[in-house]
Amino acid sequence: MPSPRLLRWIPILFVLLWATGFIGAKFALPYAEPFTVLAIRMYITLGVFLILIRVYRPKWPSWQGALHSMLVGSLVHAAYLGGVFAAINAGMAAGLTSLLVGLQPILTALIAWLWMGNQISRKQMTGLTLGIFGVAAVLLLGKTSALALQFNTVSLLFALTALFGITVGTLLQKRFCAKIDLLTGTFYQYLANALVMSLLALLFETREIDWQPQFIAALLWLVFGLSLSAILLLMLMIREGEATKVASYFYLTPPVTALLAWVLFDERLTVWGIAGIGLTTYGVYLVIRNPVRPLKQNRP
Q1: 12-21, 47-56, 105-114, 290-299: which has the minimum mean pLDDT?
Q2: Cα dihedral sign, 174-179-183-186
Q3: 22 — phi, psi (to 5°)?
Q4: Mean pLDDT of 158-171
Q5: Of 3, 53, 108, 240, whose CB count within 10 A is highest?
Q6: Where are the alpha helices (DSSP H) in the chain?
Q7: What is the pTM of this model?
Q8: Domain ranges, residue 222
């Protein structure tokens, strides 16, 4: 188990890595269709995980644990990543997609309250509310060029699929996969994701790829920066923390992504954008500083 000092730095590193996912996708998608990119990414990641498993020799889960991990993978990876990519591909503005998926902490808190019996304090609810307003300020008011709120029914369904996938998958990971080794459990998650993405690419895409250096570099970053490093950090945070607290860190992704886009693509932030980043940060602070308490004590 990591030391408490190391655990304090893990969320910061996770947010920085997770925010680069949208940047990596922006670099990769001009050269291949979304489900094809995700399928290739998953198969490379599976190969990396097999090497790590052979080196560290962790314990493999039972068949029940493997099924739980594959279910979580279908939600956290396939539904979330596939839903986001498909929503943008179907015509929804990237900013609106990020905003909808950014509702995850609110949805996680509500489900944790209704399903898992967690109590949400007033300060936590205030933090969650401030977080969503901060995300909205960054995405809708924070850039010099107006973001078009374009969407249709199909793209909206894809975005909602991503939202519910990452939310329910996070809660299932906490409830059923907490004792499963991170390496072997995540391997089964990626196996499920690879199968789903392959099927979607086979059914709906041409699977043509333009192997340019920029595509290869973006793909490698998506594998080692996101699928390997960020996901292992996420699974570790879920195992060591509360579902609502972990979900609150996703609020920081759109603001950090906006900052990275400003540095890499000169997408300048306005005063509204800077204010939104500050509001979001304070909202996350309120959530993580006020732990969720169970309504009922578990009997031994």
Answers
A1: 290-299
A2: negative
A3: -65, -35
A4: 88
A5: 108
A6: 4-28, 34-56, 63-73, 80-89, 94-101, 104-115, 122-136, 153-176, 182-204, 213-221, 231-240, 243-248, 253-265, 271-288
A7: 0.73
A8: 4-294
